[in-house]
Amino acid sequence: MGSQITGFGAYLPPQRLTNGRLEQLVDTNNDWIVQRTGIRERRIANGEGTAQLAAKAARRALEDAGKTPADLDLIVAATVTPDRFTPSLACMVQAELGAANAAAFDISAACSGFVYALDIADSFLQAGKFRTALILGAETLSRIVDYSDRSTCILFGDGAGAAIVEASPVNGVPATYLWADGAQGGVLCAQALPLGEDPLGERVPQDIHSRAVHMAGGEVLRFSLSEAPRAMDEALRRAGLTIDDIDWVVPHQANKRIISGIIRRYRLPEEKVYVNIDRFGNTSSATIPICLAEMRERGLLQKGQRLLLVGFGGGLTAASAIIQI
Length: 325
Ligand code: UT7
Prior knowledge:
Elements: E1 2-11, E2 15-18, H1 19-25, H2 30-37, E3 41-44, H3 50-65, E4 74-78, H4 89-97, E5 103-107, H5 113-126, E6 132-140, H6 150-153, E7 158-168, E8 175-180, E9 188-189, H7 208-211, E10 214-215, H8 217-239, E11 248-251, H9 256-265, H10 277-280, H11 287-297, E12 306-313, E13 317-324
Parallel strand pairs: 4-5, 4-6, 11-12
Antiparallel strand pairs: 1-7, 2-3, 6-7, 8-13, 9-10, 12-13
Helix pairs in contact: 3-4, 8-9
């Protein structure tokens, strides 16, 4: 028994945060942002939580797959910006959908999270433990961005993507590769809670800056430029395929320069690599499923095509998967 992705969905909140608006907030300019990142605007969830974005993406994926919430028996949500520590994002989405027959839990693997979630769902389905899974990548990163830090606030946006994975005699996920290097974790970090130095004493006040995402951009960039291709090579090797067997590469949308590095390294025609970072920025775990849902909506996905997905970022983590539509 294998598994196959049968439905894709995405939801982007309507409010746009343009480079022009960021120019008013920090010492930056449109040319710098476009040249260094490829981003022109991102979306901001004004008043909506991660669960609301995720549930909207999930409904679209269910519709695309021709399934109902009652068909789901597993929900795996990847996020670094859950609305609550508990209940999990997956449980909140389950409640919102009324998916009463599902097990539900979250995973935290930052920008590699969707590929991790896919591998987890595929493994459960292959083992025969579940039949129909909803996997999610959903973030409201605007809640942990410090809008006075020009090195991070230009990058991140909010959004959600979802996919339905079904048990299938077809092997629709021929290879996956998951990896992490926790020793480098400090270069891309967001604090969950203050350290409990005096748990019975006065509570440590926690302002937004202590919770905000901090990044040593150059170091993360170097990691991504080397580890994304390595993860891609590993998935290709495990599947016994070469890059020429791949119809589409769908990379995490972190920085256009990383995507250009991938294009150069594999001598790929640009039209084989899906890019939407200009419109949505970096939505961490949500970038890859948002790309997939857009590709579906635009009629770019044909039956039998092979896609190579690659995620990389916080953790630090890197992950890749080959999927066959
Ligand atoms: O999703 C997780 C994975 N994420 C990634 O892989 C992305 C990681 N990193 C990056 O995308 C890039 O490192 C950044 C876009 C964050 C920064 O680009 P960079 O080419 O690494 O620039 P830099 O940090 O080396 O900064 C170059 C210059 C500096 O000025 P000086 O020291 O040369 O005078 C910065 O102070 O650009 C300055 N700078 C800015 N200038 C205008 C930094 N941020 C900005 C800004 N606007 N927003």
